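Input for the complex:
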Amino acid sequence: MTVLGILIPASLLLGGLGLFGFFYTLRKDQYDDPKGDAERILSGDYDDHPKP
Amino acid sequence: MTAISACPACDAVPAAQTVAQQDVLSDQSLALSVPQVHCGACISKVENTLAAYPGVHSARVNLSLKRAFVEAEPQVSIDDLITQLAGVGYEAHELDQGALSATVNDKARRDLLMRLGLAGFAAMNVMLLSVAVWAGAENATRDLFHWISAAIALPALAYTASPFYKSAWKALRARQLNMDVPIVLAIVLAVVTSVWETALSGHHAYFDAALTLVFFLLAGRYLDHRTRAAARSAAEELTALEVPRATRVDGDTTSTVAISELQVGDLVLVKPGGRMPVDGEIVSGESELDRSLLTGETLPVFAKPGQNVSAGEVNLTGPLTVRAAAIGADTSLQRMANLVAIAESGRSRYRSLADSAAKLYAPGVHILSALAFLGWYVFTLDVRTALNIAAAVLIITCPCALGLAVPAVTTAASGRLFQKGMLVKSATALERLATVDTVVFDKTGTLTQGTPVVTNWAALDAEAASVALALASGSAHPLSQAIVQAGAGGIAAELSDIQERPGFGIEAVWQGKPVRLGRCDWVGAQPVEGTAVYLKVGAETAFAIRCTDALRPGAAQTVSDLREQGFHVHLLSGDAENAVEAIAQELGIEDWRAEFLPEEKSEYIKALNDAGHRVLMVGDGLNDTAALTAADVSISPASALDAARVASDIVLLGTDLSPVTDALLVARRAVRRIKENFRIATLYNVVAVPLAVAGLATPLIAAIAMSTSSITVSLNALRVRVK
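Predicted:
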C-alpha cells in the first residue's frame, strides 16, 4: 500500500500540470479564435517566425 | 510573445516601441469587419495586404468573428485600408471600437470557462479515488481516499460553484425559489454528510457526485452564455458598423467629427447618400430625402432651404447644409426609439420553459427530501442515517439534466439558425417562436428591398433608352440607379453639358436638343400614378419611366410557404394605399393595412394578441419598433435601423427572407426536444428517486444516474441539428 504514497501525489501533480496549462492558455487568449488557429497551422507563413 | 494571441493590446506592444522612437503621436488600433473571410488562404491574403500598406505595423484576422484588427500609425486612414482590401476582393467595413469593446474581452465567458475547467479537473481526480472505493477499498485506505477527496472537493466547490451560491442567495432574499436553491442545498448537504461520514469512517461519501453535478451545471451555463455572447457580439458589430460621424462646417473649412461632439447651432454638411445625423433646418442646398426608415414611405420627399429634417432621413441627390436643432438623445429618431420602452413588451409576459419547470421542480424536491428525512428519522431515530438519505434524494433528483435540457437545445438550434443566416439574440426567442400562429410583415425594407426597379423599360424606344441611360449613369439617386440597372448592357448616348439639378433631375444636350430626366413638373410632363421618373427629349412628349419597389428575394416563397403551413399572414405599412395593395395582391396577402402610424401598428398587434393569437412581427423601420416590441417575438433584417434591431429578438443577416420559415420550423423542433429532455430527466428521477428514498442509493448509483441522464439529454439536443 506504500505505493499509494507515490501514486496519489503523482496523479494529482500531473492533473495539476494539465490544469495549470489550461489556465495559462486561457489567459493567453488561445480560445478566442479556434477556427482561425485551425486554419493558420496549415499555412507555411509563420513556420520560421511565429506571429505574435 | 510566443503564444498566438488575438488580443490587440498584446499586439500593440512591439508596435508601440517602434513608434516611440520616431513619433510622439500614439498608434491607432482599428477594427474592420471582413465578412467574406472564410479560410486559411483568406487569412494570409488579408493580413499580408493590410501589413504591406505603408504605416501599418501589424494586422491580425480573427476568423471566428470575421474581423481584422490593425495597429497602424496615426496618419493611416481606414478608408484606404478598405480600398486596399476591396482591391484584392474582400469587402470590408469600419467598426466602431467603442461599441465593440464589450466583446473583445469577454470576462464572464473566461470566468465560466475557468470554473468549468477547475470543476472538471477536481471531478476527474475525485472520481478516480471514488472508483477505487467502489471497487472495494477498505478501512484505512477508504478513509484516506475520502479525506483526499474532501481536500480536493471542498476548495474546488467553494470556488467553482459560487455563481450558484450567489444566484440562490439572491432568490432567497427576494423570498423566491429558483433552480439554484435546490442545487445549492444539494451541494451543501452532500458536503456536510460526506465530511461527517468520513470523520466517522463511514462507507458512503458524495464528494464526486457534488463535483460532477457542478461540472455538468457549469457546462450548461457555459453553453448558454456562449450562444448569447456570440449573438450579442454580432449584434454589436451591426451597431458598430454605423460609425457615428458627421461633417461639420466651420466657416470655409469642414472637419469630420464624432456626432457626440456636435452642438446645437452647428452647421452640418450632409453629402448625397448620407444619413442625417441631427434634427435641424436646411440652410442651403436642394435635394430629395428618403424617409422610408422613419415612416415607411417609398417616395422621396423634396427638400429645400427652410425645411425641417429629422435624424435618420437619407439625403439623396444634392449636398445639404443643416443647422442642428436637436442632437443625440433629443432627436426625433431617439424619441421614437424611446416609444419602444413604453410599448408593453411581449417578452415580459412570457415565462420560459426552464422557469416553469423550476417552479414545479424546486418545491417538489424540497418536500420530497424533507419527507424522506422525517420518515427515516421517525423510523430509525438516527439523525445520521436520515440526513444521509435526505442528501442522497437531493443529489439524485438534482437538476443536472434539467440544467442542460434547455441550453443544450438552444445552443444547437441557434447554431443551426446561424448557419442559415439568422442571429438569435434572446434566450427565450425560440420558445416564443414555437408558439406563433400569426406573422405580421412590414412592407418597405422588409418584404421589399426598399430600392426601386424599372417596370416599363421595354416600352422605351432604343434612342430614348440610350439617352435615359446616359443621363442616369451620372447620378446617385435611387431612381437613376434603377434606370442604370434596367439598361445595363445597353449603349449610352453621347451627351454634352450634363448637369444634375439637386431635387429636380438631370439635364444635358444630345444632338443639339436639350434632354431632361427628372421630376414631373420640372420636365413638363403629365403626372402618372405611382412612382415614376420623366424623360423629355427635345420637344417630344415626355415619357414616364415607371418604377416599383422590388420584392426582397425569397419574399414570395416565404409568404406562400407560411400560408401553406397554416400561419395567418398580415401586412402593415406606413406607405400609400395603392403601393401596399399592389404588393399585398402580388403576394396573396388578404389582411393588409396602409398608411398606418407607428402607434396603430402596435395597437393592431395588441388587438391580435387579445384575440388569442401569438404574433411574430417582421419589420425594419423606426416606425416598426413599437410593433416589434409589442409582438410576442420579432425579427428584423440586418439592413434595419439600429433601434429596430435592438427591439427585435432575431436578426436576419442576409438579404433573403426565406430563413424566416426555417426559423419557425427549427423553433418548433427545438421546443419539442426541450420537452423531450424534461421527460427524459423526469424518467430518470422516477427510477432513481424510489431507490434513494428507500435508502438503497449508493454514490455509485447516483453517479451513474446523473451522468447517463446528462449525456442522454445532450445527445437528444444534438438531434436539432439534423434535418
